[in-house]
Structures are given as structure tokens and as C-alpha cells.
Amino acid sequence: MQGRKSLPPAVRRRFQTGRISLDLVHTGGEGELAVWEIVHTAEDLSHWLSVILEIPGITAEDADLTAFRALRAALSRAAFGTPAGIPVDPHDIDTINAAATEPPLTPRLHPDGTRSYPDPAARAALSTLARDAIDLFSGPLATRIRVCASDNCGLLFVDASRPGRRRWCSMDRCGNLTKVRKYRGTHDSGE
């Protein structure tokens, strides 16, 4: 996570990891992640859960902030630890499992082919995110969780490439910038 401070918040918020449970991690956190915190109020929580899940109108109350912070902290430790070969802590497993016991968001199909989520609440959204995390950490993609290799990024992503050798969160951003820096460093030092 070193260098994470270099990445503008607007970029971090637009980036999608490939899994909704990991997208939640990018909303801030504790310690060195506190500088990136974007969820301060129940209204913020409503907004960002709606963005992450692409479900408008998720409602949150102040009491939901505690459950959100606990789940996000557990997911952060698990997600950043997994690429480093650190097993998920039993306390974090308990936190994720507890969030998953709540009823999840339930979609309804409409005759016109659209769907909706009646009364989408934050606890149901957090359950949906916890269930995604359980699927991720217990499945084959757990070994594909990566931290961007760029010196000034640190975002998480799931490497869904066929060979499984993806190094950057985005080739357009971090991959190309890293290659340009490397090229300039090689050519500038030779002059």
C-alpha cells in the first residue's frame, strides 16, 4: 500500500477491482487508509453502497456505519494479506461470516426485463458484499487477488487474465506510466 497517497481520490473512486467486495475496500479505512476515507456519514454510506452495487436508493442509518467499518476492515486485511500469502485471520473470517448472515439484497424481475430491489437497506447491501467476499476468498480467484505493482498506486484488483500475470490495476493508467518512467530512466541516464 506504499505510495497509495499519490493516487488522486477521484481515480480511486472510479476504479473497479473486478469484485464488488474489493471495491468496498477502496472507500478508505483505518491507519494509512484513513487519508482516503470517503464514508463519514450514513448518507455517504448510502451513496457509496449504491455506486459499488449499482443499485440506486440504498438506505443507511447511523447504526449501519459500525457494521460497515467492521466489514471493510476485515475485507481490507484479508484482501491485502492474500497476495502476500498471509492467511485470513479467524476474527476477520467471523466478521465476514456475521455480515453474510443478514438477508442479502433480493432482486425482482419486471415484465419489461428490468429489475429492482425493493427497500434496499445498507445491512442487506453489506450482506451481499460479504457473500461476494466469501465466494472470492473460498474460490479459485483467491489466488488472483493482486495489489497494483506501480510504485505510486496500491489498488487491489482480481487478475482475470488467462495467463494470470497481470501486474497493474490498469494498463491505461499504471502500466503505461510505469513503462514510460522506466523508458525515460533508461534513456535519460545514458545521455
CATH topology: Jann2411-like fold
- The tally of beta strands, per DSSP, is 4
> Which blocks of ≥5 consecutive residues have pLDDT under 50?
1-8
The total count of helices amounts to 7
Indicate the mean pLDDT.
87
The CATH class turns out to be Mainly Alpha
Pfam family, one: ABATE
Protein name: Zinc finger CGNR domain-containing protein
Domain Zinc finger CGNR: 144-184
Describe the structure.
With 191 residues, the chain is mainly alpha-helical. The chain has one domain: Jann2411-like domain (Jann2411-like fold, Orthogonal Bundle). The protein has seven helices and four strands; from the N terminus they run H-H-H-H-H-E-E-H-E-E-H. The chain has helices at residues 9-14, 20-25, 42-53, 64-81, 90-100, 122-138, 171-189; strands spanning 108-109, 115-116, 145-147, 156-158. A two-stranded antiparallel sheet has the order 1-2. The chain has a two-stranded antiparallel ribbon with strand order 3-4. A hairpin with a 5-residue loop joins strand 1 (108-109) and strand 2. Helix 3 (42-53) crosses helix 6 (122-138), helix 4 packs parallel to helix 6 (122-138) and helix 5 crosses helix 6 (122-138). The two termini are 34 Å apart. Residues 1-8 have low confidence and may be disordered.
